[in-house]
Amino acid sequence: IRSVVAGDYHTAALTQSGEVMTWGQDAHYETGRGGNGAAPGRVKGVVGATSIAAAHSTTIVVTGSGRAFTWGEVRPWTRPGSAGASNLSGGSPILLWLDGLDLP
């Protein structure tokens, strides 16, 4: 394990190999595993992670290529065309879109 972070009711660990493991309450999909997060498990679709952060019910990961992924209770502006959408990611990591940066 390279680092461990925690939100209010979930925990995430960044492994030496760049994978992310999560566990805890998953009321807002903050474990990134589709509502299946009580026991520790790997977040699918996230590889090459170099840093990780967690907040109340959100997790954010930055990969070695500079892309940022987030899941849990995220804001609508993290996805193009989602104005007015739910703040929940649906349980899967989504690419974080930042104004002023080129789209991938």
What would your notes on this structure say?
With 104 residues, the protein is mostly beta strands. The chain has strands spanning 3-6, 10-14, 20-24, 41-42, 49-55, 58-63, 68-72, 94-95. It starts with a strand and ends in a 9-residue tail after the last strand. The strands form two sheets. The protein has a four-stranded antiparallel β-sheet with strand order 1-2-3-4, with no helix packed on it. The protein has a four-stranded antiparallel β-sheet with strand order 5-6-7-8, with no helix packed on it. Residues 81-85 have low confidence and may be disordered.
What labels describe this entry?
35% strand; mainly beta; 4-stranded antiparallel sheet; 104 residues
Helix amount:
under 10%
User: What is the number of E strands?
Assistant: 8
N-to-C SSE string, H for helix and E for strand: EEEEEEEE
Low-confidence stretches: 81-85
What's the average pLDDT?
A: 82
The CA-CA distance between the termini, in Å, is 29 Å
Q: What's the story with the biggest beta sheet? A: 4 strands, antiparallel
Count every helix, treating DSSP H or I runs of 4 or more residues as helices.
Answer: 0
Shape: globular
| Beta-strand proportion | 25-35%
**Radius of gyration in whole Å, from Cα?**
13 Å
Largest sheet: spatial strand order: 1-2-3-4
Short overview:
This protein has 104 residues and is mostly beta strands.
Secondary-structure topology with pairs:
Blueprint: E1 3-6, E2 10-14, E3 20-24, E4 41-42, E5 49-55, E6 58-63, E7 68-72, E8 94-95
